[in-house]
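Researcher: Sit down with what I've pasted below and flag anything odd:
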Amino acid sequence: MKLYANPTSPFVRIVRMALIEKGLNEAVDTTIVDAWADDPAFLDANPAGRVPTLVTDEGARLTEALLILTHLDAVGPEPAVLAGGPEALSAAGIAIGVFDAAVAVIIGRKSAPDFDTGLVGIKRFRTMREGLKRLDAAFAGAERSFGLPAIAAITALDYLAFRFPDQDWRALCARVAAFREAQADRPSVRDTVPRG
């Protein structure tokens, strides 16, 4: 398999973490790309020019993180990343919404220097703050396995700290922050921290 990736993308990170958790990391050739550079080989794999993109051994091109995770659960060993039922998937959805909003801000800033103070920017920051609070509530008293909710929560918190270091995101989600710290030495967490 071949994975087109960027080390700062939270969508890439959830796939990379799943690959490590499932013991599939060594079976994947990872190519780091600049999603803004329109590399022809990358665009051949994904005409939308978005990461992550996974090309399977059979040549199928999977172009969205959740579709890639579905494929990894189908072909890879346990643990299943997408297991856990509606409550678990709901928590994962909240976390994905948080980092999706953060990515929207980063992209918005490329075209509008005052993006943060405009209508869309204000809504995206609200989504990040409220999402972290709701995610923290979802972590209350939960027995936490290391599936998509945990992976997405760690990814959300780390991405906000990486992109917006001037804000105290951990104060909004103390349970998630404590869980993240408890997992700091886990290879999937340690080896995928965003770096720019």
